Protein 1
Amino acid sequence: MNALPGSTDSMLWRVLFTPVGPRLIVGRRLSLRRWLPRRWSAGELIAASTLPAEVTPLIVEVVRRTRLWRREKVDVARELIAHFEDAIKGEGDPVQALSDFGEARQAAKLIRRAKKRNRPLIWHAWRRTLHAAAAALCLSVAFYGVLIARYFSGSPVIARNYTAEVNATILAVPEEQRAWPLYREALLALEVSPLPASEVNQWPLLPADVPQWVEARRVIAANQASLELIRRGAGRPQMGFPLIPQVDPEVDLHLQSLVHFPAREIEMRESTTGPIYNTGGMRWQYLRGAGMLIAADARLALLDEDGGRLFTDLLTIIGLADQHNGETLFIDQIYSLHLLNTTARLIAEALARSPAALDDEQLVGLAHRLSAYAGGGPIQIRFDVQRMYFADFLQRLYTDDGEGDGRLTSEGIEMLRSMGPDVPLMGVGDEPVRFEWLKGPLAAQLIGGRREVSEEFERQLSLMERQAAEPRWLWKEIPGTTYENQVASPAYYRRYLPLFVMLPAIGRSAMVAESATQRRDAALTAIALELHRRRHGRYPARLDDLVPNFLPALPIDRFDGQPLRYLLTDDGPLLYSVGADRIDDGGAAPVNEEDAQRVAPYWFRIPADPMNADWILWDGRRQSATDAP
Amino acid sequence: MRIETELMRGAGPVAVLKLLERRAMYGYELIEALAQRTEGVLDMGQSTLYPLLYNLEAKGLIVGEWREAESGRNRKYYRLTGKGRRRLAHDTKQWSALSTAMQALGITANPSPEVR
């Protein structure tokens, strides 16, 4: 038998009795272990001892129960063997020695605990790291469990039915004061569809001699009954179109029966509890058709020099614009401005092309109606309607703690996905998500809570409101630019995802309002110039000559805050704005479509770098009256 | 008289350190010495002595080394380290103060017998 190694503190001892020691140092392939002293196991040591047979089981049990490293077990075994050899020698009785030693299980437990304290620092560090990792894992699992429970246990509470509130106001107006019933009749009376809208949209602006007028004339001639109903409807004070049901099955079926109307599945939504933000699409499509049809007829009347019809149609368009402006939905405001723009452009063209088409009384009547639009003065977008949208939206996404806060629900996540944005971890659309139960709670944490999102919405909207309340020449940036820059950041986008859905580039609508203000003021100025010409036999030398008999005040160029530029040439007058670059180029017209877009950005943000052109608002020069403005 | 576990937990380590003050001793020898010198009062269970020794060793107060005794048997002898001596001096003061306090309260009537 090999001799037992001596001191347990020696390096040799540690190498031999550390579980991986010899393998690390010697390696398997070299097989040098045979050159080293034999590695004793605790069992072999005990078996090799001279202790009586009744004692060894206790030592074996104690050593086994310690569950220590091999080296440590050997050390304990050696010490216990020595102990019992001394004890038996001292007491002479192995049974007594066993009795004096005590219970094996307890001894093993204490020895294990004490021996482990003797282990190297690195082992303690590793053990603590493992314990910390295990604790962190347990905590994480527990925390995630809570998240999962919260995610699936919470449900949105529809505390306020905004749609019903709006509808109650709309339906409280007597039917004879509401225009929608007549517009509805007009849609049902359509003989030929004026759609697709993309084509009809162009009709009011088409040059006089293009072939599209053949189709336009055919559609307009076939729909005279509808046009008459639209004219009557525009004379009523309010639109009165309930928000829900959003699709009118009878109107939809009729439109589908017409050639151009795109076929679609009719949704029979009779619910009165639907989300308010989901009610704009169809009504806009219905009403846009009516607006474009009357605008096309006005243009046709202008080309035909039918002043009476032109006047009636222009008043109809302004009436439609007024009605849309009084509606709840944001999109109605935008469409209202579009109609106002169309009116202003048609008036400008009429005054350039056929100055005699409209008599004095008609011009004054149109001027009064235009001036009174939205209460007069610079046109302001009412961003506040978005607050109602957003409040309704949030109550369908989040739980409600009764104090303005709440957590995103699984229904909310689904709704967000169905509305288009890329929801973190959950993707887009309504395809099932793998491991939704695992991803959903985390996604809900990545997106801000109800109060946080609501406060950010209010912050951004208030900023847009403040910016849009300023006249354009004082803007340091287009309203909403701050938000658009922030939402471009992935972290912001993720955190405030509901804002992205409900607060698209609406800040830019202030540009539309500014454009409409400018075109309206230009149309009013053009009317004033024409009335001056009729009264005095000539155009005024300066715009100041129009004030106060023809205009209450000088029209302002919305780009620089100065009076609109006016040139009186031998061929006639020219009214223009300096445009986005704020440089007066002497009334030079843009040479191409790109410059025409850049000179007065309407919606898209276009850099206002200098260009050699101005924004021509009314060209009364004789040679210009051949094409549309 | 058997000392309760809690008291023994405080007294055991200092008693072992004191025994090792003059010379190195092995496990069974310590058990015997404790029983004899304290007349059985500090007669700790044999199975608890070894964990106590391993704990003191882990703290660096004692160090154990295998040696061959005159009888030819291998035994693990424990001796005090420098740190152990300082600890013993410190603990001795503590116990002395405690003993004085106990006397003052009349809990112990006579000075504690000096452990030799």
Protein 2
Amino acid sequence: MRYLRQTLTIAGKDLRSEIRTKESLNAAVSFAVVILVLFSFAVDPSADQIKEMSGGLLWLVFAFAGALVLNRSFARELGNDCLDALVASPVPSSALFLGKALANFVLLLIVELVALPVFGVLYNMSWARQPLLLAPVLLLATWGMTVIGTIFSALTVNLRLRELMLPMLIYPMMIPVLMAAMRLTTLLVNGEAIPADDQIWFRLLVGFDVIFTSLAVTLVDVVLVG
Amino acid sequence: MREKILYGMGIVAGLWLLRNLYVILLGLPDEALQGAIYRILFFHLPSWFTCFTAYFLAGGASILYLWKKDLKYDTFAVSAVEVGTVFTMVGLVTGMIWARIIWGIWWTWDPRLTWALITYIVYASYLMLRRAVDDPTTRARHSAVLCIFAFASVMITYKAIDWWRTQHPGAVLSFRTGGGTMDPRMESIIYQNWAALMLLTAVLVAIRMRQETMSREIEGMRRFAHAI
Amino acid sequence: MSAVPPEAAINVRQLWKYYGDFPALRNIELNIAPGTCLALLGRNGSGKTTLLRIMAGLMRPQKGDVRIFGNDPRHSAARDAIGLLGHGIGVYDELSAEENLRLFARMYGLANPNEVAAQWLKRTALDHVARSLVREFSRGMRQRLAVARAFLHAPKALLLDEPFTALDDRAIALLQSLLAGALKGGATIIMSTHQLREAMELATHVALLNRGKLLFHGERPVEMIQDPTWLYRTYGEG
């Protein structure tokens, strides 16, 4: 019970800071829109081609914009040595991690929920035809990205070139999640049913989330303290 | 003494590889469908075995480091990963040469090729992270965590790739096919080449470990000098 | 393993900390009784900060161990008991003074965070700016808020790293009165410092670190009241 309260306290703190300054949220949302616009030059936005690559386009946008949010996650603690104050407090490292992951998760979802309608308008797609299946894909894949991003945000927080190192580390790790999310999202935003063969991607998403959440929760204390 | 054993092992590995090369080039006949180029397989497959053995051991050493906090495990992990990435490169390049001859293209986004490339990138980022951290203890801790994540992610990616269509040649070794698809003489050379490469790997890792230990000692002395 | 003396508030045994192959702390043995104030002296790079960080549970040593009232520093009971004031102020610029204190009160699991926050804002004379963002604060106000943050859960062990450096007069007066009060209330204080004169007003004990080794540890020598640098000269630190 105390653990849950501590987790929520940390998540609330991060969200409050972010909503107040909008440092990463503004950057991530505008970055997402810019990529969406730029992409119209890479392919013919009116062609059928765009339908086939919609999932891929969307998740690349989410991943690129998401890195801006994830980068700030632990970096925001550097300012006044707040990280020391947090780690020295009775909040366990894993609660600290989960709280921060939860805040990042909400922020990434906000970015995605802004980017999706923009994508729909710009590329003339009615993306919300299967909301009940699209929602779990968004939630599961976003949590997978969040877990990887948050733990590596903690790992890189004291590095020179932190902004460059984080994407280098997280994108290759996120590939399975991105693969699954791209495949399923393409089917779903085009209003197609998910063939039996592709059901397995849901399992991959769940498996990825479970494995990496447990790894991150186990190892975060080592990352933060030693 | 240790040095002599090390160089002795290196020489044995080199001679063994030469002898295998002799058998591969002159002893074995051309393959029925692929002609001479199939011989690249004798280096391609063992390189992959070798690099995955190295990555696997590096993952184990990383867990041991986090448990025992002894820098020698970290030294082993970085040495194994470095040698492993060299063999990943060998595997990738030999695969590309083979693909050029057989498929007519250097690269195709065949899932297994893609996976190999991802593996290479993941472990290259491990080496990059190490360069960015100054304190050896923090470096060891953080790269151990990354190494564990890297191995898990590479394994999951492998599984994901399995679910994607593959145009990579399937299993050829008898323990996976139940025998009969490959000349036992050819198969034995594959294993012998693997063994020779593993021996070479052991030598390279040992040399790299010594160098890593020394550079850490020098770093420690430099800090000591600054402290005075 | 020898038993921890029951009277020790903080007990450090055979502690070694390495950065790579460089020993930052070498075989530190310290026994700090409750209700004492230890001034940790030594030059830059002597290992004072490292020792304090290990006691605060921000780092783990390679060898040896630290007990805070009998617990490992990472144990939640130990962390409940510790108040930390480091180099940074450890409060958030984008939150208000009140929000910062409430946040830390919640993290320490205090029963009524709002009351505690209000009470500490008053004690540090920040109640008139409770709702302003810390970003807008002057230097002295930020430091007073940091002090409130470190004290608000009534810690039994206070770890202070160079607490008087960069403080203005008002914050120094506040900190000294709070420390004196805490000491009277039975708290244990460890502070690393260069400001010998300020430290000597409170210190009951002193410890001298040199290149990671503990050269002296004991009650404050009487000579240090008149001449705070006595210890340095006596132990060859110039």
